[in-house]
Specification:
Order of helices and strands: EHEHEHEHEHEHHEHEHHHEEEHHHHH
CATH superfamily of the largest domain: RNA polymerase sigma factor, region 2, helix turn helix motif
Shape: globular
Strand content: 5-15%
CATH topology of the largest domain: Rna Polymerase Sigma Factor, Chain: A
Radius of gyration: 20 Å
Number of domains: 2
Helix content: 40-55%
Length: 396
């Protein structure tokens, strides 16, 4: 029988690739709900093809979406994010894919876990922001939570994800020596340091390997994405930060590795296609076709690994310190980074200023103890205020 699935962030890269995997297995899933910011043409096409029971958009886009769906799809009910009673039903879908970039994706993760849905987390921010609170929530509700993010999914596959369905999120990997997170280094791996001040948003989002949204592409260019993953791995696999290492791997073929105490290193390899981890989590513990190109090892010219340069990637160095500090500092780092990246993409600040904004925010606000989700949300809001103040001072 098909399982109901809700996709939060349905028009983004992950959302669309999830729908592509579902398209290849039409009898496995019933698309129950699709959410997006606006009544975009992409959302209209997805609603027309998959005919979900619900489509959720922001308040201002509800009437527009209703109008556009008339005569195209009478089955789909259009909701606002304020329609809490209907959202409660969506949270309880059998499978939930959370792919909303930034802190905005927090509620869908938390409420879906509480509702008992199998949650496939593609966005880093909920794990980064909530940390142990999310760990406790998952253990309390016994929810299956699986990582879609390619590096975390690789770790998942190289550890408990292979053990016949016995994997438990937010628990230690037995016999672990260390986790090796790989990152391509982004588009500026070989750019002269003095030239980074002149790079444009268009250059920053032109990732050499992956096809991603603008924000995550900039995070790859600063390697803040690896910084967020350090904290994500720290909680998702209950691993102390000193056992998590980042290595630069420009080819993007090895998606991450797990090194064990006996000297074994297990690596997950594959084409740089997000449909692979999406398919892996959708069908786990089984495997189905993802539509991705198969890897031809005989055509690989070589696999290279190197230590990251903290002068080139100051965001990564800061993230190491934040992972050790704990508390609210991760939420502060995440929020200030979101503000700084948005400012850079709007050409308000230079590329190197992203790291400066984040560092100043973390230094000013410190690392207070996390006591509740509301506490985290307050830290997030305060960090955005502080970051905007820094951005104003650095404005071009």
């Amino acid at each position: 029988m098909s399982r109901s699935i809700a996709i939060w962030g349905a028009t983004g890269s992950i959302g669309q690739q999830t729908l592509d995997v579902i398209r290849r297995h039409p009898h496995e899933f019933e698309v129950f709900a699709l959410t997006a910011r606006s009544a975009s043409d992409q959302l209209i096409r997805s609603c027309e093809e998959f005919r979900p029971r619900f489509a959720v958009v922001r308040d201002h886009a509800v009437s527009e979406l209703v109008s556009k769906l008339k005569g195209v799809n009478s089955k789909t009910a259009v909701l606002s994010y304020r329609d809490q009673s209907a959202l409660t039903e969506i949270y309880a879908a059998q499978v939930t894919v959370t792919a909303v970039t930034g802190a905005a994706g927090l509620d869908s993760v938390v409420e879906s876990i509480r509702a008992g849905s199998r949650v496939l987390i593609a966005n880093k921010e909920p794990v980064v922001m909530l940390g142990r609170l999310l760990q406790d929530l998952i253990h309390k509700h016994g929810t299956a939570v699986l990582p879609v993010d390619s590096e975390l999914n690789a770790i998942f596959q190289c550890s408990g994800g292979l053990s016949g369905g016995q994997f438990q999120p937010f628990q230690k990997i037995a016999g672990l020596r260390r986790i090796l997170l790989t990152g391509s280094g982004g588009p500026f791996l070989k750019t002269e340091l003095d030239a980074l001040i002149h790079v444009t948003p268009q250059q920053a989002v032109a990732h050499p390997i992956w096809s991603m949204g603008a924000k995550i592409s900039v995070d790859s260019a600063t390697m803040m994405n690896k910084g967020l993953e350090i904290i994500e791995v720290r909680w998702f696999f209950d691993t102390p930060p000193e056992k998590i290492k980042v290595v630069v791997h420009p080819q993007g073929i090895v998606h991450s590795m797990v090194e064990y105490e006996d000297g074994s290193v297990l690596a997950q390899l594959g084409s740089p296609d997000m449909r692979i981890p999406i398919s892996n989590t959708l069908f786990w513990p089984d495997r189905r076709s993802s539509g991705a190109e198969f890897l031809n090892l005989t055509q690989l010219s070589g696999l290279n690994f190197q230590k990251p340069d903290f002068i080139r990637y100051p965001c990564l160095k800061l993230a190491h310190a934040v992972a050790r500090a704990g508390g609210t500092s991760a939420a502060v780092m995440n929020a200030s980074n979101e503000e700084a990246v948005a400012a850079f993409l709007s050409s308000k600040i230079h590329f190197p200023c992203i790291a400066r904004v984040v560092r100043e925010s973390v230094e000013r606000l410190g690392d207070h103890r996390v006591e509740s989700i509301e506490h985290i949300q307050a830290a997030d809001a305060q960090a955005r205020i502080v970051a905007r103040e820094s951005i104003q001072k650095m404005s071009i």
